[in-house]
Design brief:
- 39% of the residues lie in helices and 17% in strands.
- α1 (20-33) packs parallel to α10 and α9 (204-211) packs parallel to α10.
- It has helices at residues 20-33, 45-48, 63-69, 77-87, 98-106, 122-130, 144-156, 182-190, 204-211, 238-255, and strands spanning 7-13, 37-42, 90-95, 111-114, 134-138, 162-167, 193-198, 216-220.
- It has ten helices and eight strands.
- It has an eight-stranded parallel sheet with strand order 3-2-1-8-7-6-5-4.
- It has 263 residues and is of the alpha/beta class.
- α1 (20-33) links the parallel β1 (7-13) and β2 (37-42).
């Protein structure tokens, strides 16, 4: 992830809607689009939501039932990782519990992502750091002190392969709250590779992030924006994902080497 090209993570997240065939289709889309990695999320609703959590008005199910329905079947990981390997994609995950971390290790993931709401979970961060794998820390809900604490934990486990992602933890995220310049703050404060996890609508903010120095871009995508579920509406569809990646590669090409000698 230190080369000139940004490492692009196609965030499938929960947009498989509990279907392994949709998960496989999402992987195919990521490969077709030119992404470097595809990422899912492995969590248990019972660890994050009370069964009487307030209902989201857009959905007929209660919040707990909705999130429960979006859990990935952990038996899929072996098959999905093999498909990714065959297509030249990194298979990534946001593991939200110890069992999920062990599962990620068992399929030999190179990079594990710590979701914004888990970054202050010192035990989880330590367990991920102990894996010896690359770590992406999403910083959407964290201040500099909390980020420093997570980095200190990783360093205490002799894990220095850390990427920090600027993120706005709203879905969709308003452009006015994007704060792309925070990537420079993170890089200066911690000396880590920095990137951007994008929850805005469209692709122009992700493209701007690359022009502003992002070495990692994470973007949610879906097979169909009109599908049922909380993450489809702000995600981009297959052709838009491909177009975004093409734009990013053109932007990188256009940046040049900075030497002014014509034409």
């Amino acid at each position: 992830m230190t080369n000139k090209k940004a490492f692009i993570v196609a965030e499938a997240g929960v947009n498989h809607n509990g279907s392994i065939s949709k998960a496989m289709d999402l992987i195919d889309v990521a490969a077709y689009s030119g992404a470097d990695a595809v990422k899912f999320q492995t969590f248990k609703a019972e660890n994050h939501y009370a069964k009487n959590s307030p209902k989201i008005s857009l959905y007929k199910e209660g919040t707990y039932e909705l999130i429960k329905s979006l859990e990935i079947d952990r038996n899929w990981h072996v098959k999905l990782s093999k498909i990714c390997n065959n297509l030249g994609l990194d298979f990534m995950d946001s593991p939200c519990d110890f069992e999920a971390i062990d599962l990620a290790n068992s399929v030999d993931m190179d990079i594990l992502k710590v979701a914004s709401f888990d970054m202050v979970d010192s035990r989880l961060v330590r367990k991920i750091a102990q894996s010896g794998r690359g770590i992406m820390l999403s910083t959407g809900m964290a201040n500099l002190s909390e980020i420093q604490n997570a980095i200190n934990i990783c360093h205490s486990e002799k894990n220095y392969d850390i990427v920090l992602l600027q993120c706005t933890s709203l879905y969709p995220a308003p452009v006015k709250l994007t704060n792309l310049n925070a990537m420079k703050t993170l890089q200066q404060a911690f000396g880590c590779i920095v990137g951007y996890s994008d929850h805005t609508l469209g692709d122009h903010i992700a493209c701007a992030a690359v022009a502003n120095g992002a070495k990692v871009i994470e973007k949610h995508y879906t097979l169909n924006k009109n599908a049922d579920g909380p993450d489809h509406q702000f995600a981009i569809e297959p052709n838009d994902l491909k177009n975004m990646i093409n734009k990013i590669r053109e932007i990188e090409c256009a940046m040049g080497d900075g030497i002014k000698n014509g034409p």
